[in-house]
Amino acid sequence: MRARRRLAAGSESVLQRAVGRFQAWSLVMLLTVALGTVLLARPVASDIALREATVRGAGFARSVVAPLVNRRVREGDPEQIAALAYLMRSRLRDGSIAHMKIWTQEGRILWSDEADLIGRTFPLEAAEQTLFGTDQVKAAVSDLTKTENVNERQEGQLLEVYVGVRDADNVPLLFESYWTTDRIRDDETAILLRFAPLAVGSLLLFMLMMRPLAVSLARRVDRGRAERSTMLRHALSASDLERRRIASDLHDGLIQDLAGLRYAIPSLAAELPRDATDARAVLDRVSESLERDVRGLRAMLTDIYPADLSEGGLRAAVDELAARARAAGVQVELTLSDAVADAPVEVAQLTYRILREGLRNVVKHAQAEHVWVRAEVVDGEVVLEITDDGVGVQPGVSVESNPASGHLGLRLVRDTVRDLGGRLTLDNGANGGASLRSRFPLTFATSWAG
Fold it and tell me: Going from the N-terminus, what domains does the chain have, and what CATH number goes with each?
């Protein structure tokens, strides 16, 4: 009953962790979308503002600036320049355009809202030179690093638009206008206000719709895990029952018959003639062989069906394994925690099998003098470790080896541990010898969310 309560608690914990992971990842996705929307709003707003500045700058250049420039303006007629300046400055006063320049093909500034630049000559870049004689437009966010921008640098970032035009006399000119970035900020705010709620709200709605499905799937997987765990525990119990049946058959059948035969041999020898020494020698050897076989079968009984683990006999059964290893000449240091000794019978059975196979391999293969056995519970898992000071793991030998390597028992145990969601490894120890390590869930309940 206590084990069932632990399994139920473990199952609930698995479900909670699964749903928690779904919610955590959903929140990460939500934040990612929100951050992505914020990061994309700026470049999108810049593109929109540049396109708008391009259209407005080109329209102003062709419909207003170009018709007002003629030979008299190019020659510096004060009256014509005053009329041009009036219209240009009236457009500057509405705040949409920050600065204007009209360039000649020689790089001379024909007119500018900054009076100290009028008449001065500056080098034009190749991309700007190609605009003369065309109706093309070049627009970009200006870094204001050019020589003629010395007066605008304190104003920060501006949108720079170059438009190729022809004046009233069909002379190629270049009109340059600077637009404030206020439009970028306005567009960025508009994008965030319109698209961020849509993107985040859609994802949030999707999360809310998916949560019942995630909970349902988690419960189904959890039920499948619980059923699998139950079947595995039943398989272990069935294996225990089968070992009990085999042990009973051996004890009540073959062992009793061999023991009876061994006791009958002396009576048979007494009936032989005094001079039948050869026959008596044969019967003595048969009697000794039968005695060895009976001892071997009784030892096998202990392996097949050890002490009653269901009544808290794991400690006694493991002590018996250690005593057998000591009888074989290996010093054993055993540490078995109370959490393992008092574990449910299924855990005790698997623990006993692992320790039995580990100690058996040490005795048979390790050529060791000492072996250290440790069994404890760490973070809800049973941790077993068997370390010796023997020859270590030979090249090409592992738990994965074929049966001919002598590790078939470990391989079978490894498969059982793996089915329970644990692992078993055999490696060389840090200070020589071999180290067999195993971990498996105390409740035999694995977490698919982990």
Answer: 69-180 (3.30.450.20), 309-450 (3.30.565.10)
